[in-house]
Model the fold of this input.
Amino acid sequence: MSLYKKTFNGLKKKKQGALVAFTVIGDPNYNTSLQIIRKMIDSGADILELGLPFSDPIADGKTIQAADMRALKAGINTDKCFQLIKHIRKYNNKIPVGLLVYGNLIYQRGINKFYSDAKKVGVNSILVADVPIEESGDYIKAAKSNKVDTVFIVSPLTSNERIKEIAGKTTGFVYVVSRLGVTGAKATLQDSTLKLIKRIRKYTKKPLCVGFGISKPEHVRSVIKAGADGAIVGSAVVDLIEKNANNRAKILKKIGFYLESMKKATEN
Done:
């Protein structure tokens, strides 16, 4: 049984949804990023989603774009990202670790080598943000041969037929985009998001985790109640890093308090 299945099954028994916490690896620098990820684990994150910094993150809004730039400026590259994940695995080897990556970074290293190296350091899944299902064959093949789970995106514009296809090729969880546009924290959650969750659920029993704009405990409660298995919190966490970039202790304190409140909201 994969680590994702164990995690989702365990949470269901406890009548909880999954809190999926995102940050960009190396933001604002290597050592602080390592401490941030440890704090995320200690504060209730059930699953980690870690972004590899990239110069042209087309699916991301200004908050995560800025985080990518800070990490790149700090000298972070793919090798250092994998090194940091090894340290995280020494700290906790039970939490699922997923990567959010842009295709160029994988292609540059070689698709199979990237997946192989990721597996060696303890990565459980890879979401390639800019590769559609139609062009994912080589990535799926590499994932399968290296025993890495796949994560694919469903948006409000995805047809029912395409939902079936995406779910059929997903082995980790389906990433449900709550709204059109790029990533970013929002004050309100659209009713269409809740309808989308219910529409997807008709076609798959795979775990559904909702991201893009999830920033408040009430957002988490709403998506879990609508049938999602988890909520993905990204830009709101990264925003705390940006606002307190020169004060490591403050970053850790604020992230800890925030994620604890978000985790509590996953409890039924």
